[in-house]
């Protein structure tokens, strides 16, 4: 009897891999992707745009969401509420690099976009939401509304 766990070797299939799956590392053991495309999508000045890190915290008065958006300014990020309860964060960055030296002309352009949507809790006051951005960290504060607590009605067991 062996106590060593055997791992199935990775075999690449374009039908098993979703480049834009935000949970890819979670489902595949974390620590980076072993796909041949991982190095392509994790290099360059816009690599952080492919998957933004989000943090959320709940206090008795409000919900606080933070998104790490290094290198982006507040003019490159947009926060919207769709349908009254879906928070949508979008961003776009375009980088242009131009070099002229010794008779050579080199111009490089790259860019990236991201969209992150998630539902707000039922007791969130989306119309009173406040946002701020400092040092590449977007902070969204959503106050809570008072929820009426209904008395529980006892149901007899027969």
């Amino acid at each position: 009897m062996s106590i060593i766990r055997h791992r199935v070797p990775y075999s690449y299939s374009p039908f098993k891999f979703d480049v834009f799956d935000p949970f890819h590392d979670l489902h595949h053991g974390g620590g980076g992707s072993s796909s041949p495309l991982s190095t392509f999508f994790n290099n360059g000045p816009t690599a952080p745009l492919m998957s933004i890190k989000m943090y959320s915290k709940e206090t008795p008065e409000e919900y606080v969401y933070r998104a790490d958006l290094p290198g982006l300014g507040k003019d490159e990020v947009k926060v919207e509420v769709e349908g009254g309860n879906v928070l949508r964060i979008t961003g776009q960055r375009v980088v242009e690099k131009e070099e002229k030296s010794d008779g050579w002309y080199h111009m490089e352009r790259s860019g990236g976009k991201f969209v992150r949507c998630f539902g707000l809790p039922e007791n969130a006051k989306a119309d009173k939401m406040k946002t701020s951005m400092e040092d590449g960290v977007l902070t969204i504060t959503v106050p809570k509304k008072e929820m009426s607590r209904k008395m529980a009605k006892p149901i007899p067991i027969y």
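Residues 30-49 have pLDDT under 50 and may be disordered. The domain at 44-143 is CATH 2.60.40.790 (Immunoglobulin-like).
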